[in-house]
Design a protein that fits this description.
Layout (H helix, E strand, L loop, with lengths): L8 H9 L5 H14 L6 E4 L1 H16 L10 E5 L26 H9 L2 E6 L33 H8 L5 E5 L6 H7 L2 E4 L20 E5 L2 H11 L29 E5 L9 H16 L3 E5 L7 H16 L18 H12 L2 H13 L5 H25 L3 E5 L15 H6 L5 H6 L3 E8 L5 E7 L5 H14 L13
Helix pairs in contact: 2-3, 5-6, 9-11, 9-12
Length: 489
Amino acid sequence: MTDITSLSVTEMRAGLDSKEFSCVELTKAFLDKADSASSLNCFTELCVEGAQQSAQEIDSLLKQGKSSPLLGIPVGIKDVICTKGVRTTAASAILKNFIPPYDATVVRRLKTAGTVTLGKLNMDEFAMGSSNENSIFGPVKNPWNPAYVPGGSSGGSAAAVAAGLCPISLGTDTGGSIRQPASFCGITGLKPTYGRVSRYGVIAYASSLDQVGGFARNVHDCALITQAICGRDPNDATSANIDVPDFTKALGKDIKGLRVGIPKEYFVSGLDPEVSAALKNAISVLEGLGAVAVEVSLPHTDAAVAVYYILAPAEASSNLARYDGIRYGHRASGQLDLKTLYAKSRSEGFGREVQRRILVGTYVLSAGYYDAFYIKAQKVRTLIKRDFENAFAQHCDVIVAPTAPNLPFKIGEKLSDPLQMYLNDIFTIPVNLAGLPGMSVPCGISASGLPLGLQLIGKPWDEETLFTVASAYEGATDWHTKRPTPQRA
């Protein structure tokens, strides 16, 4: 009998409609698989009772003849996204016992679409990290090789989909936290245009950069989860009142004549030779499908990491000021005066990387440094945005690039060198600074057996072109069909 957890979302829907299996059976299969693969450390919490109850309710709807693209499909939720009645920790000690009284908009929309929430997925604390090692729950392990990181900060979301513990999942992307783990885990992940998806109920890291997006094992399934979560939300002033197209209609289209921009600044020294070779092969595939490759320039690329690590920590220091040990979250014990209570609660509650970024953010916002760092970074951010505008206006319809400059690295390898960790996001950060949509799709397997990702970058609100190009590339290759061999951690 076919392993139902290995089916695509479309195949699962067909099986549910034909009564080949029930939603209860499908849900149980995923819960059992997640439990048996607990050594990967993908889940912070499995919602066994809640998932079973939801599955029973959906089976009743199926008996009534109800049908929709995601009805009955299990999903995992990154632990930075609020879920009513289910612990939401942001992988931080300061929120280790926080149970939200409401669902984030994206969770509510998935429930409306008929999905079953399997549980919450591990991540870097407060979404700050590129390896999923900064978590009170411990590191997530890459299902392709448990000695390696799955990428971050949405490492649990990517690893769970790659390992077949859930067919689709939600993550967040502030500087590459969907695309980089999608690349490291050999799956598809999309960061939509800033404002395309509501951030209401998402625990904030850097509010001008954060965006929710989906992971899936193929482009079509990614289109389905993206479709479900997009759209204007009155609870989020930054969500745009722009119509959401049917992304599945963008799939399977011809890309003949489409102009593909190749940024010369992305072929830099330090780019892993296998990553470079995979990218060149992917460009050849696209050209074979009729696309036209053109060189473009993004001259301020080399400033992106510095700009990001001024602006993101600045916003984080403001957002995380609310965790004070008074209203909710961890509170230090003892009879303490107010100032000591704040300091002790925050020192005990925040991990080392979060503390580092709060301190950096506070510094760049302080008197005497605000103009020198924060204001200057905002100006350079505008230049980075204009680089993309010029490239799209004059040269191309979509930009292709590596998702990450290197292969997945070993757990612990970069923890002692924060700068090397930060440089891992050099190709993803500019997309967030410019507010553009970006997608990573599988484009190769390294000699050591680890996956590689191709990044597609689109114009604002033009996720459709990303889906079209990704679908064409996927149809001409078989990288998306590769699955990790189960290994013991």
